[in-house]
Amino acid sequence: MSSTILITGGAGFIGSHLADELLAQGWQVRALDNLTRQVHETGERPAYLDSEVELVVGDVRDGDCVLRALDGVDAVVHLAARVGVGQSMYEIADYTSVNGLGTGVLLQALLDHPVEQLVVASSMSIYGEGLYAGAAGRRVADVVERSREQLERGAWEPVGENGQRLRALPTPEDKPPALSSIYALGKYDQERMSLLFGSAYQTPVTALRFFNVYGPRQALSNPYTGVLAIFAGRLLNGRAPLIYEDGRQRRDFVSVYDVARAVRLALEQPDGAGRILNVGSGESVSVLEIADELAQVMGREEIAAQVTGKYRVGDIRHCFADISRAERTIGYVPQIARADGMSELAEWLAGQAATDRVDDAAAELAARGLTVCAAAR
């Protein structure tokens, strides 16, 4: 007899790919999703969602709806969340409600409908700045942060307490959190609430800290989605991607197929003690490099990215994943090379259209003082 899983946020980008992965392994899949128009422009069931997925349309904050969605369910993957560092800084109440209260409602419902395991989507954003080493190569123990005064000078790279140069390292799970946005705080709350619940009620819980996920089905018209989707939306409209700071900030881009497989592996190998695992590619690339790569695979090489020299409140400089713990514990090894993933993304993008709302989003951030242009250097 096959098991039934509930994916909250299951009609979205990651959720739909996860549904495909689990269906292929014989799971019965149910999705709970409110089909928010910021992600689903028509507010209707997306065509890409497999017809075998049972879709429950509703809000994760609606306790009655969540209880109905849990009926007969053996496991839960909690993906439902508002996503966007910049937007979280001015839609504070809504982000706090969806991400915090929504998780609380789900956990409350699980008291009446216990499940065999819970996987919760966390985020690399909770690290703030990634891990750094000092001049002697020793790991910096303190949380590294950049001051507003430093950013206003356009001095983008973090420095040590005595002004020494630092070197970015792969970030492991034991790096202390540095919550630099409302979104990061909310994801940390989701993670901790779930792990506390699992400990109290002997439910195996895994928190997966996703890095920058990319692939087909991203919401191209959502100006607060993943950076590659935002860049793609601009390029589809013949416009230059906008890059903050100097574009040399480094990130970890991981294929959505690898992310879906990591979730499946976590479900197949539950751990009653609870665990936190990074899910990334284990490689780093600068934002400017990834913008150039995307333009090339889309055949838009003539559109050069625009480096704005501005910074956004809540942004960090470098963060990329140390994935060794995930490899040891669940056997997660990324299988999609970035070149292959980017090529597939370009093929999918060729048949897409996007409404470019990036300028509106940038104007909103600027009006609220959340973006600042650094002094000329």
Features:
alpha/beta; Rossmann fold; two-stranded antiparallel ribbon; 35% helix
Rg over CA atoms: 20 Å
Reported CATH architecture: 3-Layer(aba) Sandwich
Number-wise, the strands total: 17
Order of helices and strands: EHEEHEHHEEHEHEEHEEEHEEHEEHHHE
Q: What is the subunit arrangement here?
A: single chain
* Adjacency order of strands in the biggest sheet: 3-2-1-4-5-8-13
The percent range for helix content is 25-40%
CATH level-4 homologous superfamily? NAD(P)-binding Rossmann-like Domain
Number of contiguous helices: 12
In short:
The chain is of the alpha/beta class and 377 residues long. The protein has 12 helices and 17 strands.
Molecular structure report:
With 377 residues, this protein is an alpha/beta fold. The protein has a single domain (4-373), classed as NAD(P)-binding Rossmann-like Domain (Rossmann fold, 3-Layer(aba) Sandwich), CATH 3.40.50.720. The chain is 35% helix and 17% strand. The protein contains twelve helices and 17 strands. The strands form six sheets. A seven-stranded parallel beta sheet has the order 3-2-1-4-5-8-13, with helices on both faces. Strand 1, helix 1 (13-24) and strand 2 (28-33) form a beta-alpha-beta unit. Helix 1 crosses helix 8, helix 2 (63-70) packs across helix 4 (92-112) and helix 4 packs parallel to helix 6 (182-200). The relative contact order is 0.15. The model has no long low-confidence stretch (mean pLDDT 93).
